[in-house]
Amino acid sequence: MPDNAQTQAQTQKEQPRRRQARGERRIAQLLEAAARVFCTTGYTAASTNAIAREAGVSPGTLYQFFPNKEAIAIELGDRLVHEMRETYGEALAPVDPATPLEEAIGSAIDRFMTFNTEHPVFFALMHGPDIPGRIAETHDQLHTTLTGRIESLLASLMPAATAADVTRTAHVCLGIYKAGLELVLAHEGAERAAYVQEIKDVLIRYLAPLVGDRLGHG
Amino acid sequence: MPDNAQTQAQTQKEQPRRRQARGERRIAQLLEAAARVFCTTGYTAASTNAIAREAGVSPGTLYQFFPNKEAIAIELGDRLVHEMRETYGEALAPVDPATPLEEAIGSAIDRFMTFNTEHPVFFALMHGPDIPGRIAETHDQLHTTLTGRIESLLASLMPAATAADVTRTAHVCLGIYKAGLELVLAHEGAERAAYVQEIKDVLIRYLAPLVGDRLGHG
Amino acid sequence: MPDNAQTQAQTQKEQPRRRQARGERRIAQLLEAAARVFCTTGYTAASTNAIAREAGVSPGTLYQFFPNKEAIAIELGDRLVHEMRETYGEALAPVDPATPLEEAIGSAIDRFMTFNTEHPVFFALMHGPDIPGRIAETHDQLHTTLTGRIESLLASLMPAATAADVTRTAHVCLGIYKAGLELVLAHEGAERAAYVQEIKDVLIRYLAPLVGDRLGHG
Amino acid sequence: MPDNAQTQAQTQKEQPRRRQARGERRIAQLLEAAARVFCTTGYTAASTNAIAREAGVSPGTLYQFFPNKEAIAIELGDRLVHEMRETYGEALAPVDPATPLEEAIGSAIDRFMTFNTEHPVFFALMHGPDIPGRIAETHDQLHTTLTGRIESLLASLMPAATAADVTRTAHVCLGIYKAGLELVLAHEGAERAAYVQEIKDVLIRYLAPLVGDRLGHG
DNA sequence: GATGAATGAGGATTCATTCAT
DNA sequence: TATGAATGAATCCTCATTCAT
Questions:
Q1: Torsion on CA atoms D148, D150, D151, D152, rounded to nearest 10
Q2: From CA A87, how far away is CA A91, in angstroms rounded?
Q3: C 62-101, residues with C-beta < 7 Å of strand E
Q4: What is the DSSP string of C32-65?
Q5: Nucleotides of E under 7 A from a protein CB
Q6: What string of DSSP letters covers A104-139?
Q7: Is C188 exposed, middle or buried, given 0-12, 13-18 or 19+ CB atoms closer than 10 A?
Q8: Residue B14's pLDDT is what?
Q9: At the N or C end, where does chain C have fewer CB atoms within 10 A?
Q10: How many CB atoms lie within 10 A of CB C106?
Q11: Which residues are CB-contacts of D16 (< 8 A; sequence separation ≥ 6)?
Q12: Radius of gyration, CA atoms only, chain C
């Protein structure tokens, strides 16, 4: 609920409402600019002045909406996570146990790859040994969220596994996905599609034995 | 005898500049310090002053041996690559075709994980969307070298595959390895060992069908 | 109304960036400070921090208006040239052929000496074998402009001379002027006036034979 | 007498003598290097390390012979002055009053131009608004010496003039010479020769009326 | 709320000079 | 003595952040 500001009580004060309308636009504008800059230069090398410039506003304006550079990255991450949940949430929803593994993984990967290729910042933010201190929190938060979802998915498929095993497997899956995403983002067209397929294969083959070899073509 | 320095310079590696032993020690010291700092903060956020401080010398001393920050990272990378080749080179040497895939992958991963665990900078340097310009060259060089080695390994195992397929597979393997390394570095003791095993499994299962399912236990 | 800044920007000279009045004042202030520092220490030895300090602002402020030290010198030079043209331009305008040489030279020297005495940086900037790279361009530009003006003046007075001769004579005149300026700036009061007169004499006697000895007292 | 170190008492101590032999070579070597560097970059921008490198010695060695950068310039200046005196001293020796002005000036300029084109540092050192503080002393010293010589020359030619007039005239002559030198150094071949002639003309025409119009062709 | 200006600490790098070997 | 190493203050410049308008 990062948008509860919008659903807040609307008193007679006219300023708040208008402020929020304009403010939301500005915030979106700034976050888009930040996304572009982060993608280009990475978080550490991105300067708030550059973000403001990219957004077409003055540095002062930027700081009217974000207390500091970190907050921009955090909000950006939050919104991405939110959008991901809204739009692709069901990609990680518990699957019908009857669904063949191949199909389940295939569709999940397709959805996430679509999202991530449309929002390359996501990768940039979730992928930095350059990202300092506090941001790691957002990173970790997202990581935890994603891992949690994968874990619950896996849990239903690997009833015999210990919690630690499930967690580990989830981390490995996420790691494979991130590695794959990097490769996918580095290629285009047919080659990109081929990489997507490879990632699916990696995951399918990795998970098949763990989930009882419930392969679709069995 | 102003040139006796030159006559004694023939010892080590024919460095363009004749250095004193002290200098070599300082360089090693600086590179170690840099490794620590890069690991902690990432390349972009690492400051040369911080490296000098970590090495216990003044900024000027650092610049007596390295023309700039980039050169430090490059030299560090070069030395790591060199050491890797010296010590673990055969890890990617063509394997006896009779070797079971499981064993081949297992030993290669073990060797590389050992190296990377002992030299965590390696990962930090080879892993940055934040790493600018020239360093990318070293990065790319290493990447190309590694990929090449993996490719030639795979080529002998996948005689039917196209060159493009082999290349793609090699990239995927390297990607999996890097993702796995990140997980391995994030854990310790038994859990770390478990992750190492997972990575081996991922690779084995990924490659087995490609190389004719030449599994040891077949 | 985020663009009202743009609509008001049409006033002065269509600067690429809309500046506030405060900014323009700062720029003037900085240029004045730079002029003082350049005069005192010369361009090379002048530090941007010293200029900022002299202007009573922080280093960052200086760099808000000038990308580097060179730009300060260039802008300073440009403004001086501009002012010189505005105020003293006609000093080198083609003279009435009836004007005695003595009078023509006398008035030109008087005007230029006045300007240069009031703006001693001009000499400092236009006079350095120590001035590096890009500044030389402004220097050369001005030099070319001045020489050109002198040439066209001389051309009308020395109709029989070759272009090369005219150019050479113009360079010599400018050289004499600059040498004289140095002497003038090094003295004050009556002595300064005496030097001004000497320079006039040097030029008159040098040019008289070349221009047909059209001396006023002939 | 900057070389009195050489003429000093030679005791039984063998070191001093040998040191001085080697030392003199080193000093000459360093001064030549300094001359080249000063010519290229100007005094301020010249670094002692660059001078040492140019001389093919280490910074430490440089400082074994010169206490600081300034001292190098000073010694260089002294030696140049000395050499100038040795070789071209008579160029400014009192002339036979019978010598036509044209001839006297012509030969003096020829000699000095020869010296200065063979030793371009001289100009570089004697010509810097970039030359800071203490060096100005050498500068001034030389300036005074030269001016003094010119003054005594002029004094014999302008018996009616006041001391102040003579001094002023000497300064003007020296200024003209320096300005001319700059032009001469900026050209080559025939054009250079033409500029030399121009300078002679300037001086002759300037001085002729002052010295009683004792022109050779009168 | 928006702007451009202002800040000043910090970062990369240089350089005159000193030191250890 | 010669060398290369060491120093650290000073340079140029950047940037997150705050301020005045």
A1: 90
A2: 9
A3: 63-64
A4: HHHHHHHHHH-TTT--HHHHHHHHTS-HHHHHHH
A5: 1-21
A6: HHHHHHHHHHHHHHH-HHHHHHTT-TT--TTHHHHH
A7: exposed
A8: 39
A9: N
A10: 18
A11: D10
A12: 20
The reply to whether the CB atom of residue C47 sits less than 7 A from any atom in nucleic acid chain F is yes
What would the two tokens of residue B45 be? 């956020």
Residue D167: name the closest of D180, D154, D181 by CA.
D154
The pair of structure tokens assigned to C207 is 């040019």
- Interface residue C140 vs chain D (CB under 8 A): no
Long-range contacts of A11-20 (CB under 8 A, 24+ apart): none
Per the structure block, which two tokens stand in for D188?
């080559």
The answer to whether A38 touches A123, Cβ cutoff 8 Å, is no
Q: What are D126's two structure tokens?
A: 């004697």
Return d(Cα A2, Cα A141) in angstroms, integer: 14
Q: How many CB atoms lie within 10 A of CB D115?
A: 16
Amino acid at residue number A130 = D
Distance, CA of D10 to CA of C93 (rounded, Å): 70
CA atoms of B153 and D174, how far apart (whole Å): 80
**End-to-end CA distance of chain C, in Å?**
72
pTM assigned to the model: 0.81
Which nucleotide C1' is nearest A19 CA?
Answer: E1
Rounded to whole angstroms, the Cα distance separating A113 from A187 reads 13
B75-118 residue pLDDT tens: 998 898 888 888 776 656 666 667 888 998 999 899 989 999 99
Half-sphere exposure of B190 (CA within 13 A, CB side): 2
Query: Which tokens is A217 given?
Result: 């073509």
Option in A44, A123, A176 nearest B202 (CB) = A176
For A180, the closest of B175, B198, B208 (CB atoms) is: B175
The helix (H) or strand (E) run that includes residue C165 is helix C163-185
Tell me the two tokens of residue D146: 């030269």
- Residue written as token pair 């990489």: A195
Query: Are the C-beta atoms of residues B137 and B75 closer than 8 Å to each other?
Result: no
Tell me which residue of B144, B111, B99, B108 sits closest to B126, measured CA to CA: B144
Q: What is the pLDDT of residues C34-79, one digit of tens each?
A: 999 999 888 888 999 999 999 999 999 999 999 999 999 989 988 9
Chain A neighbours, 3+ Cβ pairs < 8 A: B
